[in-house]
Amino acid sequence: MKIRKILVSQPEPNNPKSPYYDLAKKYNLKIDFKPFSQVEGVSAKDFRQQKINILDFTAVIFTSKTGIDHFFRICNELRICVPDTMKYFCITENVAFYLQKYIVYRKRKIFHGKAKFQDLIDVIIKHRDDNFFVPLSEPHNAEIPDLLDKNGIKYSIGTLYKTIPSHFSNNGDFDYDILVFYSPSGIKSLKENFPDFVQGEIKIAAFGPTTAVAVEQEGLRLDINAPNPKAPSMTMALDEYLKEYNRNCR
């Protein structure tokens, strides 16, 4: 049975050169885009109530591009000028490059891991004298504070945004061969929208270690995992999977 229809839990790309469009053309696929979760930024007023002063920190840990967006949004709304001496620790190189949207990249102290937070911890330990700010969503995965505590890192977590499940209006049209998730909240939304969901032959793809863990915690089968050593992006992981799958279907 050929794979013909994929649902990606992200907004449709604005860039006509998105690799998702190349993937659709290469394998004659129909790819739909619908976020399984929505992000709501925490207001400056609510952030103040957390009694966190960003200027008390010497380093920031980013686990996503969304975290970067909301960190600089809050700084702008509170009129905080982030010092040039601030260090930035990012979970992947791709997330680190995203900082160019807000800072002069080559003039800042920026570090990154390979894919997992454990990789980044190894880098953070070398700077254990710093005071780290960790912007996260609500809810967030407990792995991050657990690893920071285990390694004796001085840090504070700030909630800058919240992820809430989206709702599907027409459950009858949910007939996809592959479901692509980018966050644990997307998995939560799947279960809320379809409490009787049976995976069967449907393939599930997850981007990032926390999303992969969420898939397995819900008792679902993880078929495609990115990033991985061969595929740093989800589209590359899908390409590898489809190539092998189609070869076996012949």
| Order of secondary-structure elements | EHEEHEHEHEHEHEEHEHEH
Could you describe the largest sheet, including whether it forms a barrel? 6 strands, mixed
Specify the number of helices.
9
Q: Taking Cα atoms only, what radius of gyration do you get, to the nearest Å?
A: 19 Å
- Main sheet strand line-up: 3-8-7-4-5-6
Number of strands: 11
User: Any idea how many domains?
Assistant: 2
Chain-averaged pLDDT: 90
Task: Provide structural commentary.
This protein is an alpha/beta fold. It has nine helices and eleven strands. It has a six-stranded mixed beta sheet, with helices on both faces. Strands 2-1-9-10-11 form a five-stranded parallel beta sheet, sandwiched between helices. Helix 1 packs parallel to helix 9 (about 235-250) and helix 7 (about 185-195) packs parallel to helix 8 (about 210-215). The model has no long low-confidence stretch (mean pLDDT about 90).
Short synopsis of the structure:
The chain has helices at residues 19-27, 44-48, 65-77, 93-98, 117-124, 143-150, 184-193, 209-217, 234-249; strands at 5-8, 30-33, 37-41, 59-62, 87-90, 109-112, 132-138, 155-165, 178-181, 203-207, 224-226.
Keywords summarizing the entry:
250 residues, alpha/beta, Rossmann fold, 2 domains, five-stranded parallel beta sheet
